[in-house]
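Journal club prep — side note

Before the paper discussion, L.F. wants everyone to see what a predicted structure for a comparable chain looks like in token form. Sequence:
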Amino acid sequence: MNYLISFFSLFLFLKSCQPDMDTIRVTIDHYRVPCSGEAIQLCMRVKHGESKSDWEYFYDQIEGFSYEPGYIYELEVEKEEIPNPPQDGSSIKWVLKKTISKTQVPDNTEFELPLQGNGMSYIEEEGCRFLYEWPIQANEENCQKLMNAQKGIFRHSNPPGKLVLVKIL
């Protein structure tokens, strides 16, 4: 009997030394959006669990996950609380456990992106890129117009990886 109590006590002690972890399911949208953290960056749009609510901005990275625009992902991720995180860092570490699905959106799927924020254009003139990351398929004249526009309608190139300008708003 003492052996059983000792074993159970040891198990509880070891369990209490491990960080708190939850495994959850997330859906990641087919495009990223500008967001403000320490600086303007591109954030993934996510939904947690089976939520039918609006998309939320996801500022962190998911360890082991490589995002590609043009796909909707269903993932199983582990959410681990970081004890004593850095002052300007996240208190949560996200780790990919399993990719449930990766579905390419139809070629004609259109989406709206803001082109300005915080008094700056998100369009890089040289090379016509969105926030220095995402190449835009547009002629030089339209690229110039994008720099002063508030919003634009885009779709993904085929294969995905570039933004195709549909309309300047």
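L.F.'s comment for the group: The longest helix spans residues 2-17. Keep this in mind when we get to the figures.
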